[in-house]
Amino acid sequence: xxxxxxxxxxxxxxxxxxxxxxxxxxxxxxxxxxxxxxxxxxxxxxxxxxxxxxxxxxxxxxxxxxxxxxxxxxxxxxxxxxxxxxxxxxxxxxxxxxxxxxxxxxxxxxxxxxxxxxxxxxxxxxxxxxxxxxxxxxxxxxxxxxxxxxxxxxxxxxxxxxxxxxxxxxxxxxxxxxxxxx
Length: 182
What we know:
The protein has helices at about 20-35, 60-70, 85-95, 100, 120-130, 155-175, and strands at about 5-10, 35-40, 75-80, 105-110, 135, 140, 150, 155.
């Protein structure tokens, strides 16, 4: 593992003014402050057709697989839609598997329009376990996300610190992960 780990964040929101994307940018700032290289996967800019198990290499699938496989840590961010992950994130995740996630540190983040995000984070944890990733115990759920940002910045400094901590932990544990791929 390089002294400068690569932390990749995948944004499951397609909204132009996405609170999920803003939060992931904050987490990546925490990772950068901890000495990591970072990259944000904005799914609005990727060609990932609806997953078809008979054709797993469509669009940018190979590029996404390579990026996640090369990452030392991955942050998964999603808006909460009906208590579940967004279809955009689920579709991207369907293209990925054990070859990409095994032994990889994974941080989880969910933004809710209301107050409920627990089931969404649980779905993400289940998916990460299934592909043998290592979900961080620190995860971030943001209630009433539209109230937590103003002009692209966090309103609550404590929330901002929790989000940045997610990125710091991803970078730190990626360096120290004894189960990381060789």
